[in-house]
Write the structure tokens for this entry.
Amino acid sequence: MDKAVVLARGLGTRMRREDQATVLDERQAELAALGLKAMIPIGRPFLDYLLSALADAGYRKVCLVVAPDHELIRRYYWEDVRPQRFQISFAIQAEPRGTADAVAAAEGFAGRDYFLVVNSDNYYPIEALKALRETQGFATALFEQEAMLAESNIAPERIRQFAVGIFNHDGCLKRILEKPSPEVLAELPRPLWLSMNCWRFGPAIFEACSKIGPSPRGEYEITDAVQYAIDYLGARFEVVKVRAGVLDLTQRTDIRAVARALEGIPVRL
């Protein structure tokens, strides 16, 4: 498997919000106001670090799912940078209708192959990206909560609200529990394993994406498509357990901490 899909279409609502306590340079402020989280410069665009990590993990074909008006991203990678370690293409998600709709937009790129799906505003450990490439069938990387608390830039109160993976007796994914209550969390075995939207999918996921309805917040969610694939298509999702943190660039207060964490990490496109 050498294909990766990066979801880069989001509106960046939280990144757009003004924060008087966060000092940004002119270019950072410009891109934050546009909600283009992946392109916010941390020495260089944040997305460069993720793409370099994908190449380090062995991915050679990358598709960025973007909005129709994200010409800045296309121009940067097709004209300004021109990556040498991987081929880059784009898929258009016409409207921001959720992560399952974004994955569906990449069907032409994926074809009949297995492929990785990750967020554009997260920097994942290379070990997780590589493990998903080298496994078989459907799979997901889940991240130990304690490692996330110790090694990510994300506030503990946010981490404790993240979706939790529930396993079957054979260790495969049973379901993703979204925003579990403290009472439910207290009953779950430790350690907790968190979903950071890091998936290995096969072509059946596109059928699942087409069969689900909108969630209560009006979006087509990839976790609902995953549950459909498990319940109705017989998909078995191997769980890759990762004891390492994920960096997150969701809001303006994240920029400085992410910059510190990425300092010294080489980028080769």
The mean pLDDT is 93. Residues 46-56 form the longest helix (11 residues).
